[in-house]
Amino acid sequence: MTWSNQDWWPHLLRLDILDDNAAELDPYGEDFDYAEEFEKLDLDEVKSDIADVMTDSQEWWPADYGHYGPLFIRMAWHSAGTYRTLDGRAGASGALQRLPPESSWPDNVNLDKARRLLQPVKHKYGRQLSWGDLIVLAGNVALESMGFETYGFAGGRVDEYKSNEAVEWGPETEWETTSPERFEDGEVGDLKDPLANTVMGLIYVNPEGPYGEPDVEGSAANIREEFDRMAMDDEETVALIAGGHTFGKVHGADDETEVGPDPESAPIDQQGLGWDHDFEKAGMITSGIEGPWNSTPTMWDTGYVDNLLEYEWEPHKGPGGAWQWQPATEEEREDIEKAPDAQDFDESEEPMMLTTDVALKRDDDYREVLENFKENPDEFQAAFSRAWYKLLHRDMGPPERYLGPEVPDEEFVWQDPIPDADYDIVGEDEIAELEAAILDADIERSQLVKTAWASASTYRDSDKRGGANGARVRLEPQKNWEVNEPERLADALDTYEDIQAEFNESRDDDVRVSLADLIVLGGNVAVEQAAADAGYDIDVPFEPGRTDASAEQTDADSFEPLKPKADGFRNYIGDGDFNDFYGSLEERMVDKAELLNLSVPELTVLVGGMRALGATYDDTDRGVFTDDPGTLTNDFFANLLDMDYEWEPVTEDEEVFEGFERDTGEKVWEATRFDLIFGSNARLRAHADVYAADDAEEKFVEDFATAWSKVMRADRFDLE
Predict the structure, then answer these.
(1) Among 11, 46, 82, 177, which one is most buried in terms of CB atoms within 10 A?
(2) What is the pTM of this model?
(3) Which of 11, 67, 78, 277 is catalytic?
């Protein structure tokens, strides 16, 4: 295969990550409704079929202890556990574990077998059961089959059929490595955004310890940072690790056997199965570490917690050549209750611990949680059930997206719940009345646009968080984000609240309007008026029904990662203290566009329209290439591509530029990289060229209104 453009020009801005937002990749077609299909399932029957697989050991991949439960728990955990709060990407939705790179991560060794074992179940139910839901459900069924009561299960994950190329996994070029570039200032313990794993190709941390050394203090620090970036507190962290390690074992019985290539590198005759090795000769090889954690690896109990706390543990090299921990004295090694061998029940194995396990015991805060779990097994069970539910569902968004009979009645703050409306929604007449009130109010057109954008553009399609519904832009932390210009935002919100109060108090019926609806309606009105001033009569769709979330329904800390460090749409370049892997402003803009589920044309038209509207941070003239700001013209594109102007950088970092008339040398414009990239990058220039044409302004206005509406309603799952 010949080289790609990215191979020839490695620094070329990657716009292909937006292509999935424009393409129809689902083989079931664009009219396929997974929620409708899922509701046809008999979930009890599905679970029964999974349970049958659980104890039907196959000769081609025999089950440990005659039970695939621990393997399926690991599969579900490693599918969901990739989720990170900083960009909302990864997680169980989409079943990306079956696609590269996750399919071939060293941490996912032999999970290809787990999915193949479940393949008959998937084929039986076809389109009614996604791989994403099946993988998670199998983890739940596994726990239940071994005596654990799960908190619930929600379906609704729709499969992806292409790897998510937008996910940044780190700077290393080899698996199972950690480079200083992964951390701010090269220091372990301060991962660069948006990462949540410390090792390339591992879900979390190295089980042997940082850099493969049995350093329990460093391991505890890494664990805390990792799980914090999954929005897990100390109790949830200990519950998940202790609960997961209650089951099964790790494999690494032979350090001499050559293990075959991963699935994506395997020979074609292996049909996507990886890590081939002589099982009969070497035993099962996965992590390189060998042994169970307790004597009852297929039963829910406190065996893991008891062993970890009751015995002293010392590091040693196990049979697979990796660092692991054993009871410190011969007496303790004789005393500890053995587990049966995974394949030969007449033999037994001594329990072991990982460096990451011992780290929990040596860390004062984690140990306190462990000791409480030991003394109060019911609290351990409850903590693990709730943390497991959160782990598996964290990337699914608000509760209205949850499907199936096992969805709990309880709503959690981490789901960003939106209250139901306890009033009647406004209709056409009321909307017209509110539009008139907004136009009469003392809010500049650009501020109407910026307020609506500040509210709606927090949306992330990666984990379905953020958006205008809930009007959380008026709550901490969003109301004080610098990019939102807090003082101006507060003034706009005060005016909206006055309009809301006057309208609601004037009604003698049950019709009311939410602040969330007013904010979006104000942005729409501004766009329509700006189009009218340019000579175009457009109607920006408005669907009322948003409600206002309370501070109690909002986990302020978990919303902080949604704060834009830079925003190309508002031409906000931030303070430059990014601590992340995006090397330029334009890369940050494309990343934000991907999270907003925008295509390349949508990104282009939205930036051009926001500039025409004068909706820039702090009302600067940067990128406002028009003599008539606030009017929805195509001037941004026409003047950007006009060869009568030339550009020069103002700053050393080449983030701000000035535009001069070639003939007179007069300074005319000011711009940032966010602006000039639409003339510099060939693909973006091709789209800008379309909108710059003399006959393109009407198309530009219509396309902007469509893209604007898409962002404003991105989180309206209640309309689907």
Answers:
(1) 82
(2) 0.95
(3) 78
